[in-house]
Amino acid sequence: MTPPLLSVESIDTYYAESHILFGVSLVVDVGECVSLIGRNGAGKTTTFRSIIGLTQPRSGRVLLNGQPIQGLAPHLVARRGVGFVPEDRAIFPSLSVWENLDVAYKPSADGQSHWTTERVYEVFPRLAERRNQPGGTLSGGEQQMLTIARTLMGNPALLLLDEPSEGLAPLIVEIIGGLIARLKNEGVTILMAEQNLPFSLALADRAYVVDDGRVQFSGTNDELRARPDVIQRYLGI
Ligand SMILES: Nc1ncnc2c1ncn2[C@@H]1O[C@H](COP(=O)(O)OP(=O)(O)OP(=O)(O)O)[C@@H](O)[C@H]1O
Ligand SMILES: [Mg+2]
Where are the domains positioned within the chain? Predict the structure, then answer.
């Protein structure tokens, strides 16, 4: 039996003595788009930090293709094929769009590199138009595109998107949603943290709802839609 691409098994994570994640478990299979939905402070970013080794879980396991990766330094987790798009859109402001992409290029762990600047420009025409513009002069939505595109240039097996719709105008959120849908069609495996329920339901195949550092619900979008009590209690909608 093939193991899931990502398997998080009952992790507990702390910041110093603050206990933040309590037995969080989740799986993502190849080709899936899965959402991790929760309000501010629920533990979404901490879950991502635990996966990529920025904050090591104190217990539990994180497996990539069945191989344990917990305890590895972040650059080694990245080398295994986990690409992380942070909330804060940390691009190089003085480098051009093209330079931002070029410095991020890395062949995939299996040597099959799908993403190059040409492929990125096909999927993100807006970035192609602005290829010579300094990253810092892009709009918020364009910077979000560039952060996602830059991570793709590392040819990850798994893309972790931390709140891709956050702080963007509704029209831009729609454009980013369209891009994520396109990536899904290209076969990119995605785990996406979000507070935006309609955005998550429109894009992901299934969802985990987190609150207070715990997975409070997991199921398909239809199963989540059928649980207004879960939506009301943990997402406050
Ligand atoms: N470096 C830190 N030190 C101590 N506590 C932290 C630290 N980072 C986050 N926390 C706390 O951990 C909890 C979970 O935070 P986390 O950033 O994972 O939430 P989140 O779901 O990503 O929220 P948001 O939607 O606001 O990004 C919060 O209570 C937060 O205050
Ligand atoms: Mg967060």
Answer: 6-235
Going by the DSSP 8-state scheme, the letter that residue 154 receives in this structure is: T
- Report the SS3 class of residue 236: coil
Q: What is the CATH number of domain 6-235?
A: 3.40.50.300
CA distance 127 to 134: 11
147 CB neighbour count, 10 Å cutoff: 24
CA–CA separation, 143 and 148 (whole Å): 9
What contacts 198, CB < 8 A, 6 or more positions away?
Answer: none
Looking at residue 48, what is its pLDDT? 98
Ligand 1 in reach of 70 Cβ (< 6 A): no
46 lines ligand 1 (CB under 6 A): yes
Across all residues in the chain, what is the average pLDDT?
95
Interval 12-24 mean pLDDT: 98
Question: What's the predicted TM-score (pTM) here?
Answer: 0.95
- Kindly give the number of the ligand 1 atom that is closest to the alpha carbon of 42: 21
Pocket flag, ligand 1, residue 42 (CB < 6 Å): yes
Cβ neighbors of 21 (< 8 A, separation 6 or more) are 11, 12, 13, 43, 46, 47, 50, 57, 213, 214
Q: Kindly give the distance from the C-alpha atom of residue 41 to the centroid of ligand 1, in angstroms, as a whole number.
A: 5
Q: Which pLDDT score, from 0 to 100, does residue 110 have? A: 77
DSSP 104: T
pLDDT (tens digit per residue) in 120-179: 999 999 999 999 999 999 999 999 999 999 999 999 999 999 999 998 999 999 999 999
Please state, in angstroms and rounded to a whole number, the distance separating the CA atoms of residues 225 and 13.
29
Q: Is 163 helix (H, G, I), strand (E, B) or coil?
A: coil
Query: What single DSSP character describes residue 96?
Result: B
